[in-house]
Amino acid sequence: MAAKRSMITFATDQETKERIRSYAEAAGVDVSTYVIAAVGAAMALDDQVARTFAPLDDLIAETEAQDATTAQPLEEHGQDSGPDVERAEISAALDSFFGTGAGAGTGHRGVA
Asked: Rounded distance, CA 103 to CA 109, Å?
C-alpha cells in the first residue's frame, strides 16, 4: 500500500519558477519530483555537516558547561584580568605603531 501523500505549497518569483521547470524538464521528471529530489539532497548534505561537526559541538557544549560550573576568574584560566588589561595592551600596541603617547586617552577608535 502506497503511503498517503501530502502537499506542500511554496511561492517564488516567475523567473525562479521557470528555471525550476526547465531543470526538471532537462532531468526528465515533473517539477514535484525534481523539487523533492533537490530538497532531499540538501537535507542529506545538512545531515552530513551535522555528523561531521557533532564531536566539535559536543566539545564546545562540554567546555561551556564546565566554565559555567567552575565560575573561576579569568586569572585562574591562565589569562589576564580581562578588559582593562586588553585595553592597556591595545593602547601599548598603538603607541608602538604610531609613536609614544599616541594611544593615550580615547584618540583611537575602539580604545576607550
From this structure: 10
